[in-house]
């Protein structure tokens, strides 16, 4: 069965990677900073005694209970405490739908600015919190800011970037997220040493990334796609010329116009996306963010200090371990930046998935060996370090696969007419499952115990299989020509009407639907048996735009035996 379509894009748009586009994308990516800062800050704050004593006295008492009756697995179980972490994501979920309308009507830049300002107010409220209510209202405002930023920034990046660098530039967002998490880990480590109000400083410092993003957004230009969408064609052409560094942007510009006209005809994008021809995008946009959260990554990102305390680390060591995982997260993200447009999305997804499964099973077994079912026992320093190492390898795998790709893939697979709506679905599903994990993890740990790690491993098996079968390769494919990828896919092809693949202004469309390994194998076979090498493969004009693997291969290589 051919599963991963390899599509050779025409890639004929003229232009280079200009410093302007790089700087613009870097500034926009700082939107990820606010997202990351929040992810990283709450775990540390919720493990600070002063914070717990003030806002969550019952958790504090339970944690201090030296009677030894409390299971290690249940030390931190408290629904109000988890609500502090997770309420933000609920607000983000709802806000992303408003953000979608704003992004479409007023442009990507406006959404980013709104996000930054609301987030700033939330940070101030949090830093000044006198009671749980203020704390949670502040978190909700932070959530609204994040809903806006996460809706607009990935789309902005995908639209600004030239196709061949889209993956790398888009991952700038994830990079900024990991830097935000790491920054928060460091801040927590520092403020935990303060005699009092350390938690206030941690929470209030969220204003710093928000300021960077807001000021950045004010100076950013909007994307050509968004200008066209709002009727500013001439400005859009000039912007395109500027970001591509050439006057000859005709091909790309007319694709953008065509895509925009198609999208203007759509009155209700959220209804539109339910139509059969958008089924692949709808399914993938809904499942990828869900799967991303079901990797269990936020168990580590939110609760690393709590988790490491559960594993017997002292206060300091627990916060330090969070700094270590944060650092691994940042460095491993670089791997994806340098490989995503080269090896492609699928390779990273599949390798990362396998690596995560191995680590999760190992951590589950390790915790079982030490705590058993009853949750009584203690990690020796050596075993604690082993757990930390395994968790780092797991975080690295996530950081070069599901982390960045969870945002990149859904943002690049939509035609313009469903792009904003698609991104809202992506953000809201992501936020919904982030909320669920944030809310349920401490209880789940208390009830599923070490089995929790097997639970997540099971999900990673499922999602890796899903990617293998249903997620086509999208590297190097111009964003407005993405329908060709779907049309060529063994399963999704049937959903795409022929006229949806109508944006080819370029002569040679070579579409081959076959898996990477099959393609390689085929090329080796061809060159040895029939003297047809890679070049011959590329030179052959594929008269058929869309073909299934078998039809295609038989058409190109008539000598192939029937059974192939
Ligand atoms: C995810 C977050 C996660 C972060 C870790 C992001 O892609 O959406 O939920 O905490 O990666 O780096």
TrEMBL record:
| Keywords assigned | Membrane, Sugar transport, Symport, Transmembrane, Transmembrane helix, Transport
For whether the record's keyword set contains NAD, the answer is no
Q: Which residues form the Major facilitator superfamily (MFS) profile domain?
A: 24-475
Membrane topology recorded in Swiss-Prot or TrEMBL: Multi-pass membrane protein
Q: Where does the record place it?
A: Membrane
InterPro entries membership: MFS_dom (IPR020846), MFS_STP/MST-like_plant (IPR044778), MFS_sugar_transport-like (IPR005828), MFS_trans_sf (IPR036259), STP/PLT_plant (IPR045262), Sugar/inositol_transpt (IPR003663), Sugar_transporter_CS (IPR005829)
**This protein's name:** Major facilitator superfamily (MFS) profile domain-containing protein
- What is the species of this protein? Rehmannia glutinosa (Chinese foxglove)
């Amino acid at each position: 069965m051919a599963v991963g379509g390899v599509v050779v894009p025409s890639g004929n748009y003229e232009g280079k990677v200009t410093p302007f586009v790089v700087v613009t994308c870097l500034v926009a990516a700082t939107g990820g900073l606010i997202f990351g800062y929040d992810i990283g800050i709450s775990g540390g704050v919720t493990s600070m005694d002063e914070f717990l004593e003030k806002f969550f006295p019952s958790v504090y008492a339970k944690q201090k209970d030296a009677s030894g009756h409390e299971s290690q697995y249940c030390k931190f179980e408290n629904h109000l405490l988890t609500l502090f972490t997770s309420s933000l994501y609920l607000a983000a979920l709802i806000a992303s739908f408003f953000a979608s309308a704003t992004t479409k009507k007023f442009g990507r830049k406006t959404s980013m600015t709104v996000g930054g300002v609301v987030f700033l107010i939330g940070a101030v409220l949090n830093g000044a919190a006198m009671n749980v209510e203020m704390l949670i209202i502040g978190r909700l405002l932070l959530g609204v800011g994040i809903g806006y930023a996460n809706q607009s920034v990935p789309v902005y990046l995908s639209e600004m970037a030239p196709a061949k660098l889209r993956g790398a530039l888009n991952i700038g967002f994830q990079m900024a997220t990991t830097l935000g998490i790491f920054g928060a880990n460091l801040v927590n480590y520092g403020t935990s040493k303060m005699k009092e109000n350390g938690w206030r400083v941690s929470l209030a410092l969220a204003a710093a990334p928000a300021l960077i993003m807001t000021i950045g957004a004010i100076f950013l230009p909007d994307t050509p796609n968004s200008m066209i969408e709002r009727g500013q064609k001439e400005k859009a052409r000039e912007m395109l010329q500027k970001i591509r560094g050439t006057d000859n942007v005709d091909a790309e510009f007319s694709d953008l116009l065509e895509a925009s006209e198609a999208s203007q005809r759509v009155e209700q994008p959220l209804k539109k996306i339910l139509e059969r021809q958008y089924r692949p995008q709808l399914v993938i946009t809904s499942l990828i963010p869900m799967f991303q959260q079901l990797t269990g990554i936020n168990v580590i990102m939110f609760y690393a200090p709590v988790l490491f305390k559960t594993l017997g680390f002292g206060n300091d060591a627990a916060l330090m371990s969070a700094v270590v995982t944060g650092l691994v997260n940042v460095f491993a993200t670089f791997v994806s930046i340098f490989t995503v447009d080269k090896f492609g999305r699928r390779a990273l997804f599949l390798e990362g998935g396998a690596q995560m499964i191995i680590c999760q099973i190992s951590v589950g077994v390790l915790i079982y060996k030490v705590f058993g079912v009853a949750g009584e026992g203690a990690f020796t320093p050596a075993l604690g370090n082993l757990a930390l190492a395994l968790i780092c390898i797991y975080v690295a795998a996530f950081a070069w696969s599901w982390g960045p790709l969870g945002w990149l893939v859904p943002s690049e697979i939509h035609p313009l007419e469903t792009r904003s709506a698609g991104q809202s679905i992506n953000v809201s599903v992501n936020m919904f499952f982030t909320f669920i994990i944030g809310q349920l993890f401490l209880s789940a740990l208390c009830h599923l115990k070490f089995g929790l790690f097997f639970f997540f491993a099971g999900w990673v098996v499922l999602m890796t299989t899903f990617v293998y079968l249903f997620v086509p390769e999208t590297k190097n494919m111009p964003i407005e020509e993405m329908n060709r990828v779907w049309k060529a896919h063994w399963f999704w092809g049937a959903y795409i009407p022929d006229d949806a693949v109508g944006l080819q202004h370029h002569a040679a469309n070579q579409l081959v639907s076959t898996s990477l390994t099959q393609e390689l194998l085929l090329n080796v076979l061809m060159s040895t048996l029939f003297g047809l090498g890679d070049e011959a493969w590329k030179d052959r004009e594929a008269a058929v735009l869309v073909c299934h693997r078998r039809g295609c291969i038989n058409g190109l290589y008539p000598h192939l035996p029937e059974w192939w």
